Structure formats: structure tokens, C-alpha cells
Amino acid sequence: MIKTLNLIGTRFIFLFFILFVLLFNNGAFSFLDIIMRYIIPMQQDMVIWVGEHILHRTEPVDTQFNGSGDTTYFYVLLLTVLLLTAIGTIIWSAVDYKRSSNKRLFYWLIVVLRYYVGFMLIHYAVAKLHNGQFPSPSVGGMLTTYGDSSPMGLAWRFMGYSDGYKWFMFVAEMMGALLLFRRTATIGAFLSLMTCLNIMLINYFFDVPVKLLSTALVVMCLIILSPNIVKLFQFFFMEKTVSLDKLSHSNFNKKWQRVTAIVVKYVAIAFCALIPFYAKFYEMATDKGDAKKNLYGAYHIAKLTWTDGAPAADSLYVSKGWKVLGFDSYDRALIKYGENETIYAKSEIDLVSKSMKFSFSESPDSIYNLTYKIPKKDSLVLKGDLLGKPIEISLKRKEFELTKRGFNWVNERPYNR
Hints:
Blueprint: H1 2-23, H2 32-53, H3 72-95, H4 103-127, H5 139-142, H6 151-161, H7 163-174, H8 185-205, H9 211-225, H10 229-237, H11 255-286, E1 297-306, E2 322-327, E3 332-337, E4 341-350, E5 355-360, E6 363-373, E7 379-386, E8 389-397, H12 401-404
Antiparallel strand pairs: 1-2, 1-8, 2-3, 3-4, 4-5, 5-6, 6-7, 7-8
Helix pairs in contact: 1-3, 1-4, 2-3, 4-7, 4-8, 4-9, 4-11, 8-9
């Protein structure tokens, strides 16, 4: 009886995670993107059907992807995977009822999970490079109060502040590469479990919408460790001397099978692990930088003068008092006015002529030409046409304690603001 339940359970877990890896691929197996072009339309139809006929939703499930991995769509997709897994397990067990061992099936499950978790963590690691996943705090972010931040926004700014911490996360996530090789898979799974658990808890406690995927990664690490999990417990908690079981390897008897397996393995590693690095390094090499860096920052508006004496029409809340002008990365800009309200804008800087083209998000087709000069390190003067009127704006750079204070070996007292 126990043996039968073990067989059924292994089949269920195998089918579930194979479907999960395929339908929640998230870029881990890059070559699956070609297949997914044909699968996603069917997948979406299936999710809509489950939502309508099984969950009895009055509205169809929204199938648009928006960056969140925890939408109703993905939860219904997870339910769909569970239903398909249950049906598949019943059929499989009925057809293959004479089988007495699940070792080979479990071997292939471990192989798939090792590569999925390994590639996923490598993708996460690459995303930490070059101000990627966690960019340095933006001007707009630093002008936003804690109370106006979302929990996710707060976590992103916390991790984005420190380049050193991003490098630490990069190294921790690169440990997932150990999963790609059988001899180092156990230590790789152990280290990856710590990394994935940290990711999962951040997602839970800061409401980051990648909870489904991060939870699955933790479970996958535990499954990879399962052949040795009792021995690891004995070693760490009972002070016993143990010898870890080696992960089993494929029983390919013919030479061409072994050679093919090795070729497929390293082609997959090159395609799914090395190409993301190449793409990131190419991006870093071709990035010409931000023309706005010498203006980057927030400026208090010290004086705003309509040089012909008549103010412009109040289409952009000038009468409420423009207080701060911020030049963010690349072409983004913003103006704070009134009771901490914000107007967003676009600014294209020309370093040669010291001029800029300025347009507001509320009227993007209206482009205003301004010139700038920097009389002092902390000062900026803008002149030109704005809202159809000649204007001159004197600004003083705003200092942020977050960017001003660096690392200190010696702290006579805690500096916690």
C-alpha cells in the first residue's frame, strides 16, 4: 500500500512540476519561448474556461501580462495545473499499474528542477548588474515620503541604495550555477534554498507580486535536497558523522547517448546561462551614459520670473507654487507643487548648446525650449519659453542625506534618521 502511494505521489509531483516549469517558465529555459508562442493562446483559453465553468466567475479572467506574477490569471493557472496533474496521475497510474519503482522518474524530476532553479537564479543574478532590477533611488523616489511609498517600493529603494549589497545578492544568486553539475548539486541546492527563502520572505512581507514563483523555488530546492535531507538534519542538529548520498546519474549505456547528453547539457547552459550575461555585458558596453548626469538631482525653485511681467495661463498649476524641479535619469523630469503634488515631464538635454527640450506629460505635444547655465556647483538657471511665455527660473540643488552620507568605519553614535 505504501509503495503504491509512493508511486502515485511521485507521479503527481513529477507531472505538477513539469507543467509548472513549462507554464511558469519565466525565462529560465529560454528555448521554450519559441514553443510558448503556440502554447500561451491555448493556455489563456483554458484559464478563462476554468474561471467560468469551475470557479463560476461572473467576469472572464484578465489574461494581460503586466509584470505581476500573482494575478488572478496565475492563480487560476495554478489551479488548472493541479487539475491537469490530478487527471494525468489517475490515467498514468491506471495504465502503468504494474511498475514497481519510481527511481528513474525521480531522477529526471531532480534533473529538471536542478536546471530550472539554477537558470532562474542566474537570470536573477544577471538582473542585479548595471542598475538593473534594483536601480539606485531615483530623484522622484527620494522626493517621496515613507508614508507615500508602497511596501514593494520601500524594499526596492532599500536594496537599490547599496551597490555593495547588490553585488552580494549577485554572488548569492550565482551559487545557483552549482546546481547545473551533479557533483556540486547538493551544496548548490543548500545555498540556493537560503537564497530562495530570502527572496520568498521579501516577496511575502513586502507584498512583492512574485510569491507563487518564489514559493515554488523554495519547494524545488527542498525536493532536490530530499535524498539527503535526513542526513543533513543529523549532521547539523544531532552532531552525527554522515556521508551524503551521491545524486544518481543517467544510465546511458551507449557511447553516442552519453556524448549526446553532454552536448545537450552544455548547449543548454550556454543558451540559458551564458547568453543572458552576454546580453547584459553588451548593454553595459554600448551604454553611452546619461547626458543629464551633470544636471541630475532635485532643485529648490528659489525664484520664478515671467520676464514680460505677465504669468502664463494656469494650465499646470503654476499658481499653487512650483517648489522643486527634479531631473531624473535619462529623459525623466518632475515638478513638485502645492501640497506635495507632482507634475511629470520629459527633458532632452543637449550638452553642447547647453539647452533642453521640455514637455509635460499632460500635454506631450507642446515642447518648450530652454537654455541652462550652472553659475555655481549647487545652482542652476533656466531661461527660455515655457507655456508660451518667456521665463527665468533660479534653482538651488537640494542635498539628500541618503546620497550624501557614505560608509563610516567609526561612528561615535548611531546615525539613524
